[in-house]
Write a structure and sequence with these properties.
Layout: H1 7-23, H2 26-45, H3 54-72, H4 76-79, H5 89-92, H6 108-116, H7 123-133, H8 139-146, H9 150-168, H10 176-200, H11 211-225, H12 230-245, H13 269-282, H14 288-301, H15 310-323, H16 327-342, H17 355-379, H18 382-398, H19 402-415, H20 419-428
Length: 434
């Protein structure tokens, strides 16, 4: 029976965690898990007996493969006393090995994340390791998601595993005190996973491609483990609210939509309510994700684009930039500032009532926004540079400079790989959609 939708995401971290505990090596666990998954696919394709428990079957096969390889090594005599006998393998694999929560009562994905988010590993390598080990993404998929070369992603993965092995030795899940210290890094890693999904998977074809839902599932496990942590609650609020609004991000033809084009009736009302509840609980804190949750809550609770409280959103982005300065937050603050100006009451230019000064002030603010966005297009990292260029094109579009905007959208369509967004740029540029 073919592997059902969603089963792989559930089984993979359980397999890897069981193998890592068995072999003592996260590197070996990931390698032999991949081999076992391939054997499972071949077994089903060749008409073998139905696999009742995918995780148990793959773990058993991977353990035998690891033992076989170990026996072939020249160090067999030294290692033999430490290796379990093949016939004792199933007895040694007790219920805790394949429990969704393992021996520590911790969700398998979280356990692996806490391992992957070791301080001994560089921040960029943590993300690669987490995406590979926890989510089971391939190196090409990771490279595509993160916008790096495949060789760079592979090198980061190798360095992460080597650094982890050198720093910690045999695989082990950190204890509760150490997990508390690593929690901020784990939260940021899950946020990164959702950011990848939000940027690249606007309309997932199926559950296997839905990294956004995977991020939500891990956030659910984080909340279960840390229900009173305002940053954990803020993270889940951001993910829930982002997923709730996702159905309105593309039209029926698969073309991305601007904020003011979205049909808000398509939003997931259940997820909206749940996300706003989390945002309310997160508001007791003042950390990065508590602020992000407040911003997402304002976007999600507005009845329309015109009714969005852009002034408050711009203020919150300013607070977020103070707390967590990054090019992407800078772009978002500038966008919110521009919308604050553009959503104000139309200025008629009546000099007798002082409106001429308002026109001058409005123009000055927008000119400063454009100047800063232009600098970000030139100097920011690729992802923020793209966002700044999209923001400039939108600002030109909304202020009546359609030809200038169309030219910028044409240039963007040449470099944007996300199909719904590329189609949006083509539409704005006045080009025929494929």
């Amino acid at each position: 029976m073919p592997l059902g939708t969603g089963e792989f995401e559930e089984a993979w971290p359980r397999i890897v965690r069981a193998l890592a505990s068995f072999t003592g090596s996260l590197d070996d666990a990931e390698e032999y898990a991949a081999e076992a998954v391939a054997r499972a696919a071949a077994h089903e394709r060749d008409g073998g007996r139905t696999i009742e428990s995918y995780a148990a079957w793959c773990t058993s096969v991977a353990k035998r493969a690891w033992l076989d390889d170990a026996r072939r090594r020249t160090t067999l005599r030294r290692l033999a006393p430490e290796l379990p006998r093949p016939e004792a393998e199933h007895a040694a694999m007790d219920a805790d090995d394949l429990s969704p929560h393992g021996r520590e009562g911790l969700d398998d994905r979280l356990a692996l994340l806490f391992v992957a988010c070791d301080e001994a590993i560089s921040p960029t390598s943590r993300m690669v390791l987490a995406l590979r080990v926890v989510c089971g993404l391939t190196i090409p998929e990771i490279a595509n998601h993160l916008g790096v070369q495949e060789t760079a992603a592979a090198a980061r993965l190798t360095r992460a595993k080597r650094a982890l092995a050198e720093a910690r030795g045999a695989f082990h899940v950190p204890d509760r005190a150490e997990r508390e210290r690593r929690l901020p890094v784990v939260i940021a890693c899950v946020a990164g996973l959702f950011t990848v999904a939000h940027r690249t998977v606007l309309d997932p074809a199926d559950a296997l491609a839905d990294t956004g839902r995977q991020a939500l599932s891990i956030a659910d496990a984080l909340v279960a483990a840390h229900p009173d942590d305002t940053e954990v609650r803020g993270l889940r609020a951001v993910i829930r609210l982002g997923l709730a609004r996702r159905p309105g991000r593309v039209d029926d033809a698969g073309t991305g939509l601007a904020l003011d084009e979205v049909d808000r009736s398509r939003w997931d009302a259940r997820l909206l309510r749940a996300g706003l509840h989390d945002a309310t609980l997160a508001a007791r804190g003042d950390g990065r994700f508590a602020i992000e949750a407040a911003i997402a809550g304002l976007h999600s609770s507005a009845a329309s684009f015109e009714g969005t409280d852009w002034t408050r959103i711009a203020q919150l982005y300013g607070a977020l930039e103070d707390r967590w300065p990054s090019p992407s937050v800078h772009v978002a603050r500038l966008v919110a500032t521009a919308h604050t100006v553009l959503s104000a009451e139309p200025v008629r230019g009546d000099t007798a009532t002082g409106d001429a000064r308002a026109v001058t002030s409005t123009g000055s603010v927008l000119a400063e926004v454009e100047r800063e966005l232009t600098g970000l297009v030139r100097d920011a990292p690729a992802y923020a540079s793209r966002d700044a260029s999209l923001a400039l094109a939108d600002l030109e579009w909304r202020t009546g400079r359609r030809e200038q905007a169309a030219a910028r959208y044409r240039d963007l369509a040449e470099v944007i790989a996300v199909e719904p967004l590329r189609r949006f740029c083509l539409r704005r540029a006045g080009l025929t959609l494929p």
